[in-house]
Amino acid sequence: MPSSFEIFQAIVSGILLGGVYAVLGVGFGLAWGVMDVINLSHAAFALLATYIAYWANNALHLDPLLSLLISVPLFFLVGIVLYRVIIKVMAKKAQDLVAASLVLTFGLAIILENSMQYIWKPDPRTITLGYTGKSFFIANVSIPYTSLIGFILALVTAACIYLFLHRTFLGKAVRAVWQDKEGAALCGINLDRVSAVTFGMSLAAAAAGGVCMSIIYSFNPSTHFIWLIYIFIVVIVGGVGSVAGTVVAGILIGLIANLSAVFIPYAWVNMVLFGILVAILLARPKGLFAH
What we know:
Layout: H1 4-35, H2 42-59, H3 68-93, H4 97-120, E1 135-138, E2 141-144, H5 145-167, H6 169-179, H7 181-186, H8 191-214, H9 223-238, H10 243-263, H11 269-283
Antiparallel strand pairs: 1-2
Helix pairs in contact: 1-5, 1-6, 1-8, 1-9, 1-10, 2-3, 2-4, 2-8, 2-9, 3-8, 5-6, 5-8, 6-8, 9-10, 10-11
């Protein structure tokens, strides 16, 4: 039987990790909810941002957090270009946009993975900083600085996206398209512009999530497949397109994963997560926090 200390430690670690899962899921859910595009390359783009942070740290001696000044605007622009050049063309020709997006973005994920493997080799990489491995304690519960920084960055990113969607005209247009595309178009909303901004914002959020991961875990070019599993679970549980729901679901999934590992062998944790996912889908197919 685990001690109360182990349980409290698992709760704290789960909350911190869940915040990072949440910010990875927010952008993924936006593209899915607004555009009907399931972007399987989302986690690969997040991993690319992780490698950019690694490069900035090694080549330019910059803290990975400063690499956000490079990756976030770059990924936003890349998202707009990808929408204009690939997604928009596919949407016009595909009879089933969801199925077509799965195939197309899976290919894009493989291209990104092989490119990263060619540039940085398949060896695991780790970013070591002055605060790596250091923690502070609250009632004997260890809180690593890297996990706390990643959690704060994730929440700030999610909060910025939430405020954009609820406090700006363009953000409200994105929400309108998510809720009713035809009605939004009839009201004069430019669906093409909204889709481009949404996809750009989706990849920018992936960049922030990738930087969060870069200071917490080691990584290699195939790590994105592991991240993608958790992204899917978080978005489905939270409700596709719901920023607040995704954040809550991310923290919930982080808690369940870490607490499960205290009571059962770690190899069974994913079985527990998928069991919960199936139960939620049976009870609420649109997710716990979907409108």
